[in-house]
Amino acid sequence: MAEKIFVLGNSGTGKSTSLRNLNPEDTFILQCVNKKLPFKGWRSKYTKISKDNPNGNLSLSKNYDNLRKQLIYIHNKRKDIKVVIIDDSHYLMTGDFMNRITEKVSKGGGFEKYNQIAYNFYNLLELVENMRDDIIVFFIAHTQTNDDGTRSFKTVGKLLDNTIVLEGLATIILESKIREKKYVFQTNKIDGTEPCKAPLEMFEDIYIDNDLKEVINKIREYEN
Predict the structure, then answer these.
(1) What is the pTM of this model?
(2) Phi, psi of 174, rounded to the nearest 5 degrees
(3) How would DSSP label each residue in the chain?
(4) What is the pLDDT of residues 126-141, one digit of tens each?
(5) Please, which pLDDT band fits residue 110 given cuts at 50, 70 and 90?
(6) Domain 3-223 listed as CATH 3.40.50.300
(7) In angstroms, rounded to a whole number, what is the distance separating the alpha carbons of residues 195 and 168?
(8) Which of 28, 42, 184, 189 has its C-alpha lying 20 to 30 A from 16's C-alpha?
(9) Which pLDDT does position 113 carry in this prediction?
């Protein structure tokens, strides 16, 4: 079973920047939004996979079908890949919603539409769980602020939040923040509004450098 980790935070708080020190030889980035990576030298480290470049480690997957195909390919064919990044993963739900926005629904049909959106993302999480044990999958996404002031994985509609509580499906959730003019990850809750959590004593501090390479090192040390 692959390990799922959520990296959540507002836009501009260093989520994608945290990829900067990962080893491109064992990392594959699945982008849900077509954008440049925000760290120096990324073009030489990450190249788009194609027929002409079958060993590429970057792909644009805007919908579930493409993303599932890439994940299955990585699981079966790319034994060299140990880290998978699904960047801007919340946009999968947004795209699913926008593709259905013109659908005419009968009375009560709107609930079914949101249930299907929830199911599609949940199904993706289940696929990840069935990937190889030696893979860590990072879901990078924005946060939303709920009615009670807590922050959580950004979804589409309150029905989706009530159908699946995404935070309960990951053991480790890091929240990206800017603190003292530096990008950091918060590893555990302070006032209870944060989505972040981590196993006891995995991380020494509440705030750590936003470096996914170091996060992986801590996870490996903790598990072994």
Answers:
(1) 0.92
(2) -110, 140
(3) -PEEEEEE--TTSSTGGGGTTS-TTSEEEEESS----SSTTHHHH--B--SS-TT--EEE--SHHHHHHHHHHHHHH-TT--EEEEETTHHHHHHHHHHHTT----TTHHHHHHHHHHHHHHHHHHHHHTS-TT-EEEEEE-EEE-TTS-EEE--SSHHHHHH--GGGG-SEEEEEEEETTEEEEE-S-SSS----B--TTSSSSSEEES-HHHHHHHHHHHH-
(4) 999 999 999 999 999 9
(5) low
(6) yes
(7) 10
(8) 189
(9) 75
**Polymer length of the chain:** 224
How confident is the model at residue 15, as a pLDDT? Answer: 95
User: Sorting pLDDT into bands at 50, 70 and 90, what band is 107?
Assistant: low
How many angstroms separate the CA atoms of 32 and 211, rounded?
21
Q: Is the dihedral of CA 151, 100, 64, 32 positive or negative?
A: negative
Render pLDDT for 184-213 as a digit per residue (tens, 0 to 9): 999 999 999 999 999 999 999 999 999 999
Q: What is the pLDDT of residue 203?
A: 95
Cα 119 from Cα 117, distance rounded (Å): 5
DSSP 78-130: -TT--EEEEETTHHHHHHHHHHHTT----TTHHHHHHHHHHHHHHHHHHHHHT
Give me the residue spans of the domains in the chain: 3-223
